[in-house]
Amino acid sequence: MEAVSAARLRRAEQRISALRPYADAIRRMTRQAALDAGGEIKRVPLLAAHESEPKVGILLVTADRGLAGAFNSQIVRSGTQLAGELEAEGRSAVWYASGRRGVSSLNFRGRELAGGYTGFTDRPSYTDARSIAGDVITAFLDGAVDRVEIFYNAYISPLTQVATRETLLPASAAALQGDDGEDELEPKHGERRKGSPEYEPEPDGLLRQLVPHYVEISIYRALLESAASEHGARMTAMRSATDNAGELIEALALDMNRARQAEITQEILEVVAGAGSLA
Asked: The pTM is what?
């Protein structure tokens, strides 16, 4: 299992490396158009925050299989922790889960799922991301949820996977801010902002088409990050299991040899004692 995960991890890393520049470019483009739209941004439904948020959608990105250490459990734990905080504030959580582990864990806890998606977590496709995005976008526009949070394992290295939380909808929280929480497109002190591009159609019209694609790309990136993290976590877990099994075998072999040696010694003592009594 370690060897299989190592081979799949290589391919997953290549897919992430190919997607990250495109995903970052879509985020920058969305942020630029949103800034240039100015007050017109309120006319884009997916960028407009609801007046209140009594219902928050929680999307958990897990795996279809286990034997990967704390890979799945830390995502479920993070999601249930947020749900507990919401319930303490008098709000409710609407659950979405990708991966059999997430679906089964939520069902075991008695949580009703608004959407469950399984069978593709080891090699997700853009179609899978589009299906999930379509459900959460529809729920947001229909008022079934007022905000959508996504939890997934961000891939750092085969040994490191970081449980990550992002606000998926409304997209303004993610699209208008940089990764460090600061506006990358606003000029710094003493600097002039570069000229803005001309839009056809207007920025708000462009955002209506761009933001759904941005949400799909964000989910697709989370699926790919989670897939690579799964293979890395399983490879590490199986290596640790192999090492632990080897140590256990050595310890048991040593105990067996000691017991065998003690038994042989006891038999020799009995033979010597018997011979002595005959003499």
From this structure: 0.81
